[in-house]
Amino acid sequence: MSVAPREFTASGMAARTAAILFVFVIVFTGLLSAAHQWTKPAIEASAAAEKLKLIDEVMPSADYDNKLLGDTLTLPPTAELGLEEPTTLYRARKDGKPVALIFEAVAPDGYTGKVNLLIALRADGSLGGVRVTRHKETPGLGDYIDPRKDKNKARPWITQFNGMSLANAPDKDWKVRKDGGRIDYYAGATISPRAVSRAVLKAVKWADGQRDELFAPPEAAR
After folding, report:
1. Contact 198, 172 (CB under 8 A)
2. Residue 119 in 3-state DSSP?
3. 43 falls in which pLDDT band (50, 70, 90)?
4. In angstroms, how far is CA 151 from the centroid of its own chain?
5. At 66, is the secondary structure helix, strand, or coil?
6. Engineering a disulfide at 120: which of 45, 58, 87, 205 sits with its beta carbon 3.0 to 4.6 angstroms away?
7. Is the pLDDT of residue 87 over 60?
8. Which residues of 60-75 are buried (b: 16+ CB within 10 A; e: fewer)?
9. Helix, strand, coil proportions of the chain in percent (round to 5)?
10. What is the tens place of the pLDDT at every residue in 148-192?
11. Is residue 197 within 8 Å of residue 182, measured between CB atoms?
12. Extents of the domains making up the chain
């Protein structure tokens, strides 16, 4: 009776193990891919719903009738908006006519860093709304710029910008009262509102300077 050499047996076991692992990886990868494809529509729908929920805070859905997520422009990094990466601008319309632009901006000089903003600018040049979407301002002091953390639920600080425009508010009005403007602030916490006020004014001026291009119909924008 002959006995297979030990090295042959070991190499055979190694090859068999490698084959099993290879099959396992292929099957596992296939299952992951199938799971991703199966859940992708639900994930995308959820992300779209969250995005529209946030947009609704600055531009109510009743004010427009187009598919907002399909009427967009990709903005390149834009210094006037404090943007270092490309972002998406949304265009609201009703009966085919421009209603508002919804876009992001960043105040780079908050008390503890950047303050991310979502801005709705109506076709008449007035602000539909402004929201802070991300910040690291001092809890209990500078975070009142965020309506979710502002204790004044009846009239959150951020709503002071509603209705303001370059036509009805000169540059000096876009400052906190301490600096001669009309924007209220909380005593001892002026850096955050100053940063937001400056960023909002710069964003409004940027949009006003190219309103024809930004409000153009999708066909004309291509």
Report:
1. no
2. strand
3. very low
4. 24
5. coil
6. 58
7. yes
8. eeeebebebeebbbeb
9. 45, 20, 30
10. 888 888 899 999 999 999 999 999 999 999 999 999 988 778 889
11. no
12. 1-56, 61-221
